[in-house]
Design a protein that fits this description.
The chain contains 16 helices and 13 strands. The protein has about 425 residues and is of the alpha/beta class. The chain folds into 3 domains: about 230 residues, Rossmann fold, CATH 3.40.50; about 80 residues, Tyrosyl-Transfer RNA Synthetase (Orthogonal Bundle); about 70 residues, RNA-binding S4 domain (Structural Genomics Hypothetical 15.5 Kd Protein In mrcA-pckA Intergenic Region, Chain A), CATH 3.10.290. The strands form 3 sheets. The protein has a 6-stranded mixed beta sheet, with helices on both faces. Helix 5 packs across helix 8. The longest helix has 17 residues.
Length: about 425
């Protein structure tokens, strides 16, 4: 089963019906090109073109919405795929609405889930939401961004309003959704409250009178719900723009903090730079396309150079410096590059954690764990077997080593260091 399709572009409330009144100028085509860059789908494109033409002709900015549920306290670069697109459209002069889903988080988004997602508590939501906008402002222009919370209108609906809203969509249409269909077929429980999530997200579009809503490809059903409900409420239907989901550092799973394959946008610059350098040469181009602000022609030229023999690390360094500079500074990016090169040569970074420990002589595995460089003694043993543990730059091969008292620099892998004074 597939997600339901967008209504035809020539529907009675379609923006395309008025397209003939406004010329599609070169500026409109340029804005359309910016909209399309890196996106998975833009639906319906004829409507979006018409909205852009009307906006240019009348000088009225379009309202562009992105909703994020504060399910975790930190954003990662996977979240910035849609934030980058918002910034590009913001730079064209349109109104960007950063919507914090403090109400919908109480329900829990069922998108892509094969089980009921545990809803967050109000306290968890409040704590997470406090940092969301501050982090998003590292990408968006805060002076040109409208921040809203969907509890503003969702709380006000009450039981009567919720029933009226639920009457505007059928159970049969709701069951066309992939995750609901698959879970029902497998006999996996679906809670009634999960049906409310796409309805409430769609109602956000009604409340905000949005012209365009952005989201990941896994949000298509919810985004199209917004179109449907706007039509139900007599509004011009929004267009939707879906962006691909960004794989994490492993190149397999979607970037996720819970999977440990993420780059947090608040990550220290040295860590951020090194993590970008760790992605595969193949995945690098998807990161360029979705995370870089370089012109598409420049990226294409860089890719040709690599295909013709240029070291792919050169391109990856450019990407790592661009991303690090975006969330820190150009100077921090330069220093991160120098730090990375120093580590690659076996050098010790200028700034590493310092701590004092007792218990000398202490077993190497216990020492590494106490220093916070490994999560367990078994992981310490595995790293020693792989040659990934060094003391003062010398590799450790003896898993039974007892470390005497003194001050020493411990290293695990390429990026974990600690200066320990052991007594």
């Amino acid at each position: 089963m597939s997600d339901f399709q967008a209504p035809a572009a020539n529907a009675p409330d379609s923006a395309a019906t008025g397209a003939a009144r406004y010329p599609v100028t070169d500026k409109v085509l340029e804005a359309l090109s910016v909209s399309r860059r890196g996106c998975d789908e833009l639906l319906p494109e004829a409507d979006w073109t018409a909205k852009l033409a009307r906006s240019e002709a009348t000088g009225t900015p379009l309202r562009i919405k992105l909703g994020l549920d504060p399910t975790a306290p930190d954003l990662h670069v996977g979240h910035t795929v849609v934030l980058n697109k918002m910034r590009q459209l913001q730079n064209l002069g349109h109104t960007v609405i950063f919507l914090v889903g403090d109400f919908t988080s109480l329900i829990g988004d069922p998108s892509g889930r094969n089980s009921t997602r545990p809803p967050l508590t109000a306290e968890q939501i409040k704590l997470n939401a406090e940092t969301y906008y501050a982090q998003a402002s590292l990408v968006l222009d805060p002076e040109k961004t409208e921040i809203r919370y969907n509890s503003e209108w969702s709380d006000a609906l009450g039981a009567r309003g919720m029933i009226a809203l639920a009457a505007k969509y059928t159970v049969a249409r709701m069951m066309e959704r992939n995750d609901f269909h698959d879970r029902f077929k497998a006999g996996t429980p679906i809670s009634v409250h999960e049906f409310l999530y796409p309805l409430m997200q769609g109602y956000d579009s009604v409340a905000l009178k949005s012209d365009l809503e952005l989201g990941g490809t896994d949000q298509k059903f919810n985004l199209l719900m917004g179109r449907h409900l706007q039509q139900e409420y007599g509004q011009e239907a929004q267009c939707i723009l879906t962006m691909p989901l960004l794989e994490g550092l492993d190149g397999i799973e979607k970037m996720s903090k819970s999977k440990g394959n993420y780059i947090a946008i608040t990550e220290p610059p040295n860590e951020m730079f090194a993590k970008v350098l760790s992605i595969s040469d193949t995945l690098m181009w998807k990161y360029f396309n979705l995370l870089s602000f370089r012109a598409e022609a420049e990226i294409a030229g860089l890719r040709r150079e690599v295909e013709q023999g240029r070291n792919p690390k050169d391109a990856k360094v450019l990407l790592a410096k661009e991303i690090t500079a975006r969330f820190h500074s150009a100077r921090a990016a330069d220093e991160a590059e120098a730090d990375f090169n120093n580590r690659a040569k076996g050098g010790i970074p200028d700034e590493i954690p310092e701590l004092a420990l007792t218990g000398a002589p202490l077993g190497i595995a216990a020492l590494l764990k106490a220093a916070g460089l490994v999560p367990s003694s078994s992981e310490a043993m595995r790293m020693i077997e792989q040659g990934g543990v060094k003391i003062d730059g010398a590799a450790v091969s003896d898993k039974g080593l007892k470390v005497a008292a003194g001050t020493l620099v411990l290293q695990v892998g390429k990026r974990k260091f600690a200066r320990v004074t052991l007594t």
